């Protein structure tokens, strides 16, 4: 939506980082907060029509000495209007472009400039922009000169769906990248480039990963759907979309402990109003520094 900044600047040590809004989905509040009652979650995020809440799709562009790194890429341009309406996804006016591309262009870049494309996982609202449909109707990798990186377990999960998970994984979001030979699969914690570390954070999906970015002592953490908004920091606030919610709970337990000890700054992918914050101990649990 127009009220969400298209691009927001960040600095991580010596690294210049840009948060780019790839669109603003509106999803069911109950699904976003699982077992948390509406009177509680609505104190954090107000419900709109059809019980939906406004979210963002905040992707990160990192100016690294090796090249441009992009983390997640939104929903892409391949889905029809009915699909966009169901999920309340905002795309740019030109149907062949998305808000992500608008953001890159505003920074003087194009999709061809990306050298490393990190997928936290392969759900359509995070990896739909892996590929795009051109004027002739052909689906191609969006980032022609990039290596794409995802956990091998996530790819295996995405390609072996069941009745519950099939609605989140679309083959046209990753098969063209496989066909082009641009995917690199990793297993476990991996430093893909100096200062850019992939941390397995299972629960939302078994192969979900988050990204820890380090430079000159500063540490920023991109949790993706481990804590999609700032309201999801407390332990019980877990999405109904998570396929293994008890695994999410244990992942949050060790990640939040480490985040406090090492003073990580969290950058939230789906929060429409809070871009980032530092996690602190808050009573018996955790919260954001006020």
Which secondary structure elements does this structure contain, and how are they paired or packed?
Layout: E1 7-12, E2 15-21, E3 26-28, H1 29-33, H2 38-41, E4 52-54, E5 58-64, E6 67-71, H3 81-87, H4 99-106, E7 114-118, H5 124-127, E8 131-133, E9 139-141, E10 147-151, H6 152-158, H7 175-179, E11 183-186, E12 190-193, E13 196-200, E14 209-215, E15 218-222, H8 245-262, E16 265-267, E17 276-282, E18 285-288
Parallel strand pairs: 6-7, 7-10, 10-11, 15-16
Antiparallel strand pairs: 1-2, 2-5, 3-4, 5-6, 8-9, 12-13, 13-14, 14-15, 16-17, 17-18
* Topology order in helix (H) and strand (E) letters: EEEHHEEEHHEHEEEHHEEEEEHEEE
- Ranges where pLDDT stays below 50 over 5 or more residues in a row are none
Number of strands: 18
> Major beta sheet, specifics?
7 strands, mixed
In terms of DSSP E residues, the strand content is: 25-35%
Helical stretch tally? 8
Helix-and-strand structural type: alpha+beta
With strands numbered from the N-terminus, the spatial order across the biggest sheet is 1-2-5-6-7-10-11
Shape: globular
Give the terminus-to-terminus CA distance: 26 Å
Helix share bin:
10-25%
Mean pLDDT: 95
Give the C-alpha Rg: 18 Å
Q: Which keywords apply here?
A:
18 strands; alpha+beta; globular; about 290 residues; 7-stranded mixed sheet
General description of the model:
- It is built from 8 helices and 18 strands.
- It has 290 residues and is of the alpha+beta class.
- The strands form 4 sheets. A 7-stranded mixed β-sheet has the order 1-2-5-6-7-10-11. The protein has a 7-stranded mixed β-sheet with strand order 12-13-14-15-16-17-18.
- It starts with 6 loop residues before the first strand and ends with a strand.
- The mean pLDDT is 95.
